[in-house]
Amino acid sequence: MTAIAKNPRKFPHLRQDLTASLVVFLVALPLCVGVAVASGVPAELGLVTGIVGGLVTGFLPGSSLQVSGPAAGLTVLVFGAVDEYGLPALGVIVLAAGLLQLAMGALKLGRWFRAISLSVVEGMLAGIGLVLIAGQLYSAAGLQAPASGLGKITGLPGAAADALGSSEALTSLALGAGTVAVMVLWKRLPRRVRTVPGALAAVALATAVTAAFGLSVATVEVNGLLDSVQPPGADAFGELASVGLLGTIAAFTLIASAESLFSAAAVDRLHNGPRTEYNKELMAQGAGNTVCGLLGALPMTAVIVRSSANVSAGARTKASRVLHGVWLLLFAALLPSALALIPLPALAGILVHAGWKLIPFRGIVSLWRGHRGEALILVVTAGSIVAVNMFEGVLIGLALSVAKTAWEASHLKLEVVDKGAGPVQAHLSGNATFLRLPRILESLEALPQDRPVELDLSGLHHLDHACRTALENWAERHSATGTDPVKVTEPATAGV
Fold it and tell me: Membrane-crossing residues (predicted)?
């Protein structure tokens, strides 16, 4: 500190970054633990990912103010992967995803993630939010949740009946509901009180109530930091022969990358500092996930809640996110036993609140008013994730988005002018693709067979091979009836 004091120009924003790092640490701590528990892994692994997000990704170039760590958006996917392949395979999945992110960043593919339909991304987050909320409602009541997303939702009425018949379940559920209530009401308190993050305050109050009243609820199981960190062994790498595991790796890579880069775009709108370099940010995320994979920890993404807290707290440089990783490391090293005091219903309440914020209710309404096709993609993507799984749900959403774009790009207008005498004039304008071919042929075949036809294609911007061939065949058939040959005016645009 003496050296810094002698040369304050070397660290001109140290005070602001130090304050911001403490705020981010307090926001990240309960979320790291909650995401880990909800993912079905030791709580300490959530802290490990948060530490790597600060000390590794935080040092690297890309986005200067966004903060990385374990994210609620990957909870459902991680839980499914651990349940199907086991905890040792998680490290292999995260390591492979990190290496893929490094490769994509090196190949400058980061910017292409910005081209993913926003409706697909919001639908993905909405689907995750629905499954996360449903699963954590079981945890809040101290009940075992079904494995599938659809099972979690359809099983809620039965779970409610079971909870009503158990005093312990009702106590646990009340504690979780109280945690959600504290987080919702926290924003309405005076600003001085709100210097303490709502999530931390809710967990602290729930822990205090549990201890004061001796409530019989489950608490976090503590294994110790070193015991929880288990690098993947040779047997775990053997799982790479599984097609299902490769699909899971692709899902991790796609979702983590998209969430991080969309977060970067959102964070850029919150400050006037340097803009995000997307390819470098993708490589920074890849480096962090590679280290997390080697340590057998949770995957990381950039997290908008922690990032916005960082900006709001006055952070000026990347030092704030690096320091938040230092505080997480000190907590994990010096106070790990404190985790055992945290009641699981409180963490479930935090994740129910986080899942609710993943669902864009206002966005769905506004999309439905102005862009119903995009709203449909959002809803179908979310529903597919709930009904099937994360990876296939996202693929369904992407396929719908591509199909919608192709359909709109093939906009075509056919105008027929028939003056009663002379040739019938048919004018085509727009984009003639195979998607519109049935409509084109149906309209042309309805023209009078005993009249000459002038087919004007000069208004077309694009004419694909399938349409050109079909139009030529139609013209031959129409001319074969004994009328004058169809006169065709070729498109004016070159290269169609």
Answer: 18-38, 85-103, 115-138, 169-186, 198-220, 240-262, 325-354, 375-400
